[in-house]
Amino acid sequence: MTAPPHLGEFERIARFFAPLAAEGALGLVDDVALIDGPEGEQYALTTDTIIEGVDYFPDDPPGLVAKKLLRVNLSDLAAKGARPFGYLLTTALPPTRGEAWLEAFSAGLAADQKEYGIALLGGDSSSTPGPTTLSVTALGLVAKGKAVLRSGARPGDVILVSGTIGDAALGLAILKGEVEAARKKDRDFLIDRYHLPQPRLALGQKLVSLATAMIDVSDGLVGDLKHICDASGAGAWIYADSVPRSEATRNLSKTLKNSRARVLGGGDDYELLFTSPPSSAYSIGAVMREVGVPVTCIGEIESGVGVRVLDARKRPIKLEIAGYSHF
Amino acid sequence: MTAPPHLGEFERIARFFAPLAAEGALGLVDDVALIDGPEGEQYALTTDTIIEGVDYFPDDPPGLVAKKLLRVNLSDLAAKGARPFGYLLTTALPPTRGEAWLEAFSAGLAADQKEYGIALLGGDSSSTPGPTTLSVTALGLVAKGKAVLRSGARPGDVILVSGTIGDAALGLAILKGEVEAARKKDRDFLIDRYHLPQPRLALGQKLVSLATAMIDVSDGLVGDLKHICDASGAGAWIYADSVPRSEATRNLSKTLKNSRARVLGGGDDYELLFTSPPSSAYSIGAVMREVGVPVTCIGEIESGVGVRVLDARKRPIKLEIAGYSHF
């Protein structure tokens, strides 16, 4: 149900909005803007909108919608190594969304405020004749000059990813009735991965001095790696078989056509995808054990442009994925 | 076409969102949130959303829509005495809004960026099956502890307002065909006042040490004065005849039924409404001449609650205005 990454959207931003960008806007091609904060720190600012019927189902529990809205923004902060500070909330609600919906929605926010140690700074409430439209602008803090941008990847850096990839795309496919899970446990796990991202905040903050470039996986692994490549002026290759899959995703993949493209191209996992010099391998291993989130090496940055997906024999694989250019 | 102030909206905010508020959120009852910035300053954060068919007409020129969107946010900064710093932009566009619309829209932003010395920090672009929904989150800077809040009005303070009041409401009424202007000059002036607010940024910044409470007139003069009273724990009276009216508004008022309620209750003027001890009269006069914006004294803060509107003989006038409580 999540809209696929619109290349047209990126082009529109480049053409109409990038010329308006401030210095701290990072050319509008990163996850956040950076502005000076107090005491040697910078605020990282990010904003995301979700629309009923486009980004979530009308009958999704309002508390889950609230949490997902907050967490997709917190994930952008995680991807820069920032710690969450607070957020602004904008709600445009149709008349059909009454107080019961709002009560459950605000309860979801309250629970996640506690979970992540943040609070509401302000916002705007309005009525709309259209679908429920919800925006969060999240603020994080990071030491000045230390935010991990998309643009720092260099040839020879290894490419790493946290957690498992493809779960959320399969969860969504299950919800849409495109895919069936034989086991209830797998079904529940994958749907939960779609509904409730786990922003990798602790991991992101620990990677501030180790990662050369970082992004959260929201447009799909290959598409997001391409964002790093484009911003860094480099190319990349990854081993398709190295991409970490959960047990549930492995179970489903056995019977699923096109499962590789679903895993490598699907979005919404909100894992951290980052690059690092090979010499940092030991330190990254230590961080991984400290925060308790697995990290897997899946490939390498190289000279050139675009992302090459390779099979176990280093032969290029052709995938039908939006945002993926085959060379 | 602007939605009237929803008391229900304020109650919803109080019930569902105020309990979530951070310290700097000012209880969600002020125009902005305040967070620490660099070098003894604070950022003032504000966000406003406008929706096609609710807050503006579908065939309004996109450049004007862009300017109004920016300016209603800048007006909130002006009302705290902050200077503009930058903004985030969120657009949710239906497929019918193509590149020609976006080109004109971004040209409007570019012109106002130049006018106000600000730039775009970031944002989010998405597609919607609903009406065009546009949000700006604006950031301003103000010396720490110096922002003029809504809550500082004290009995005995005089109540002042910049510019003229009622123009935008009449401009909107003309656009909706409810009201006719005999003179083209009046018609153009009033419609322009509705389309293109002039945020009183220079005036607001000069009032930082003089005003005890301040707000911008967006919900209507009486409604916004009531916001100051509620936040300050005080009441107020104003002389209806002291409220400054433009020549165009005076011309239209002659033939218009209910013109007093339209002027005192209509929103969207984006003038500054503020309070000050009578001893500051001389300094405020000097500021007024320096920035070239007229300021008029219209009444006084008193003990009690609510806003009393008085005629020339100090008799209470009953007005049918949303947000106005008669005592």
Q: What's this, in brief?
A:
With 327 residues, chain A is of the alpha+beta class. In chain A, a hairpin with a 4-residue loop joins strand 1 and strand 2. The first copy, chain A, has ten helices and eleven strands.
List descriptors.
60s Ribosomal Protein L30, Chain: A; alpha+beta; globular; disordered N terminus; 327 residues; Phosphoribosyl-aminoimidazole Synthetase, Chain A, domain 2
Q: Can you walk me through this structure?
A:
The structure is a homodimer of 327-residue chains. Chain A is α+β, with helices and mostly antiparallel strands. Chain A has two domains: 31-143, 60s Ribosomal Protein L30, Chain: A (2-Layer Sandwich); 150-310, Phosphoribosyl-aminoimidazole Synthetase, Chain A, domain 2 (Alpha-Beta Complex). Chain A has ten helices and eleven strands. Chain A has helices spanning 7-17, 62-78, 99-116, 167-175, 184-195, 201-206, 221-232, 247-253, 259-265, 281-291; strands spanning 33-36, 41-51, 83-93, 119-127, 133-143, 158-162, 213-216, 235-239, 272-276, 295-302, 306-310. In chain A, the strands form two sheets. Chain A has a six-stranded mixed sheet with strand order 7-9-6-10-8-11. In chain A, strands 1-2-5-3-4 form a five-stranded mixed sheet. In chain A, α2 packs parallel to α3, α4 crosses α5 (184-195) and α5 (184-195) crosses α8 (247-253). Chain A is globular and about 55 Å long. The two termini of chain A are 29 Å apart. The model of chain A is unreliable at 1-7 and 323-327 (pLDDT under 50). At the A-B interface, α1, β1, β2, β3 and α3 of A face α1, β1, β2, β3 and α3 of B.
